[in-house]
Every structure is written in structure tokens, then in C-alpha cells.
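Re: weekly structure request thread

Next one in the queue (179 aa):
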Amino acid sequence: MTKSDESFPKIVVFDLDYTLWPCWCDTHISPPVSRSNSENAIVDRYGSQMAFYKDVPEILAHLKQNGIKVAAASRTCAPDVAKKMLSLLHVGGTRAIDHFDVLEIYPGSKITHFNFIQKQTGIEYHDMLFFDDETRNKEVEHRLGVKFMFVTEGVTWNLYHQAIEEWRDHKKHRKSSSK
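Done, posted below.
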């Protein structure tokens, strides 16, 4: 899958908690946070370590290498902690936060997050793919046309490939119903 493939989303949007990492950053992490001995993990005030789910760094790198925009849409009550975590975690030797084109990280509706993502990027909703661990956020698919992918145990390569195929099917059905 490369950008030359016409049926690839123009932007992939990720929730953060229990989608990219295995915690709620507003309740499971006690600031301040710092990088652990590994560039792929952080440690909080009490020594609890946290890292991305196993496949996440490679998926983020793959998206950037192929010119696909990346965004975060999180309703966490601790946006500063989330951003700090993204600044401390690394992807291929660079800060993870630098792999994101848009950060919509604040309490509120995912609809609001996506409205701002659309305004900032100019990308149509149907050209977006969204990974999230909360089924209630499927409302972005029903109300806006963003392809929603439910995440149960973090984003994995298998889930990522399945999501791309479902996004392509979603796009085909949209095109055929508009004829």
C-alpha cells in the first residue's frame, strides 16, 4: 500500500487512549512524565512505564513515508499530558508528535474534532479513516461520512490492513450510490 494507490485515505486519524497506547493518560498517568531508558517508553512520577502498542510506531512511520496525513482526535481531560507523551515517545528516531499533521486533543465531541480537522486540512470526510476504541464515536461515520474502525486491543497491522480494505469498500459504495 503506497500513496500511488488511488484508493488510500488522504488522512488517517487516531484516538490516543487504548488506541495508540494502553492507558487513559488522564487517569493512569501521574505527571510529570519523562522518557524511560528506551526511546519507545515513558515513565510517570511513580515509575509506571507506558509505551505505544507494538505495531503503532511502524504504522505511523509507514503513513508518513507514504505522504499520508496523520491526525489525533482525543477527548482526554489531560491534553497537556497527551501531548507530552507524544513528544517523549519516538517513531524511527524522531518524536512521535512530529508524525502528526493535526492534533485535536481536548474534551468534547469527536464531531467537533473532525470539523476542525476538515477545516485545517481541506480533506473531505469521506477521504478520512478513523481508529478509536469507543463505539459511541462511530457517530463520525453516520453523521459525517468518516470511515470508523473499532479498536479492541490497540492498532495492529492486521487491523490497519482490514481498515484500509473497509475504507476502500466504503468509498466504492459511496461512489456507486452517487451515480
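The longest helix spans residues 157-177. The two ends are 27 Å apart (CA to CA).
Next request, please.
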